[in-house]
Amino acid sequence: MYAVIVKDLYKNFGNIKAVDGISFEVREGEIFGLIGPNGAGKTTTLRIIATLLKPTAGEVKVFGYDVLEDSSKIRELISYLPEEAGAYKNLRGIDYLRFMAGFYAEDVKIKKEMVERAIEIAKLGDRINDKIKNYSKGMVRKLLVARSLMHSPKLAILDEPTSGLDVINSLEVRNLILEYVKTGTTVIVSSHNMLEIEFLSNRVAFIHKGKIIESGVPATLLEKYKSENLEQVFVQSVKKYE
Amino acid sequence: MNKFLNLLRKEIKDLLTLKMILPFVFSIFLLFFIGQVMQKEIGKGIKPLDIGIVDLDNTESSLSLVKGLENAGNKIIFIKVKSDSEAIRIANEKNLSMVMIIPPNYEADLKNKKGVEIKIYSIINSLSFATSARRANIRNFLRALNQQVVEYFVKELDPNFNLKLIREPIEAKEFVVLKDNIQQGNASFIIAYISSQTIIIPVALLILIIFTGTMIASSVALEKENKTLETLLTVPVSRFTLILAKMLAAVIIATLFAFFFMFAMISYMSSFGSLGASSPQFNSVIKLKIDNISKILIGLSIFLSIVNALIISTLLALFAQDVKDAQATIMPLTIMILIPYFFAMFFDPGEMSFALKIFTFLIPFSHTFFAFKFLLLGQRIPVILGNLYLFIFAIILLFIATKIFSSEQILTMRFTTFKKQ
Hints:
The structure holds two protein chains of two kinds.
Chain A: E1 2-13, E2 16-27, E3 31-35, H1 42-49, E4 57-62, E5 65-66, H2 71-77, E6 78-81, H3 93-101, H4 108-122, H5 137-149, E7 155-159, H6 167-180, E8 186-191, H7 194-200, E9 203-208, E10 211-216, H8 218-224, H9 230-241
Parallel strand pairs in A: 3-8, 3-9, 6-7, 7-8
Antiparallel strand pairs in A: 1-2, 1-4, 4-5, 9-10
Chain B: H1 2-15, H2 18-45, E1 50-55, H3 60-71, E2 75-78, H4 84-93, E3 98-102, H5 106-111, E4 119-122, H6 129-157, H7 164-167, E5 175-178, E6 181-184, H8 187-198, H9 200-225, H10 229-233, H11 239-270, H12 280-287, H13 292-317, H14 323-329, H15 331-346, H16 354-362, H17 364-376, H18 381-406, H19 409-412
Helix pairs in contact in B: 1-11, 2-6, 2-11, 8-12, 9-11, 9-13, 9-14, 9-15, 11-13, 13-17, 13-18, 15-17, 17-18
């Protein structure tokens, strides 16, 4: 079964075509990487899947639910980590997690379990009790990743999960995601860092000027383009497309 | 319900920051402090003056005049000098407020029915309201003394003369008709009294609405500024619940603040005195207080105004990208509130032109500002219609707000003028 089906998706902002007729599927339990430079249409696509934006045309289904018709059902199944997400600075890390857990569980015990899981994922130690305004960028990002995975969503949509982080923090966040998806969560991850996606994803799609120009399993693509990494594959596929 | 309470708790925590509380506590403290100081200062007005007396007559009558001043609570200091300038010099040295010079032959001239001239030198060593009030007390004392002398002369001429005819030959018995009540009293006094008392309501309402509006606008803008809005919009909770929690949090905090503000305001207002609380006019006003149904109508009107202000602020804040933008975006709301605030202070609906009336009452907040006036005049229908208008206005605004919150416009809409360069 497919977790996500995107079919002939278009999204215009006035005269700008942000997404120009893309189609792809994400299988249940896999990590699907959406790769492309800034402004390629990755975030717009993810925002549509996350029910934040409405498609101009086309169809998007998440676990069989339509983004236009069943947006509230979809919100129960997903978690979305925006690229530039922040957290409530006046709250302590632990209070933020408790607050977010409150949307996914009414039972106190389940809520507590979610928060404990998030603390484990975030690996912030005692700093979890500090106010978020005192966190570094890396700590906030770890907290947000933990927040997006704590309730075991069926689909986690992670937009540039390591955006703005240094090498060590990026690696830690990538490991967090890899470690966590072993539980069966489907993940769509976007990045302009192709090495990161290569490291994380089971399958990838290249997005360029609002169109998907190539997709497949990283190893197969490397072989197909006789390249050493996905960056080279991307460059070649852009040349081929243009 | 739990999700709503979860949101509400977070919103209240978000709004109740030190940055928000401190300026408010400070302004309340300031108002309360000013009220207390004013009360003390005005209290001094009824306290005695230090009066230097140069009694050049030294007779029973002159001593009786001095005794009268002393009985009025003034502190009397006798100065034995021969010239006015010397008396003033001593008064200055002793920091006296006044020097009264009773001329020689004071008693004899009075008895001979000649005019008498008392010299009063007021030494201006303070420009306070209290000192001015104390000097007025002396003038009142001399007026009463003159009255007594006149009555004494008349009695001498005709012992059976009715002295009331001198004091008040034409007595006016005034009545005020308000609602179905006819009460004895002075109309201008009652209007002044009502105005002074009812000023608390519009001022508190003005602060409450602007404060609530700013809070909700900042709250919405803060979600954008902190980049938390996108996450919040993808959690499994309805957009209506999101708006409602934000608004209710703002209402709770604003009401709390308004309560403290009213307390401070009342303290401040009471510093101006009770306007003759023991007079018959005051008793008339007490009897003309609005009834319980009117109180409910006023309460409903205030509540609906706050709801309208909250929704308008929310809508305006959607255009803002950060908290600074939010302060600017709610400017139209502030103007919408200030117009009826001033109109209600200066105009009566009955005296307004048709065009002005239409313009005024199209602004939803006008209905609340004018409600108290209508109810005091016994007119409930305009208040009920006003509340209905406020209710319909709120429903339409809420519908628009929920629509925008449910659409992608919440993430994309902004005024180009507010765009960061």
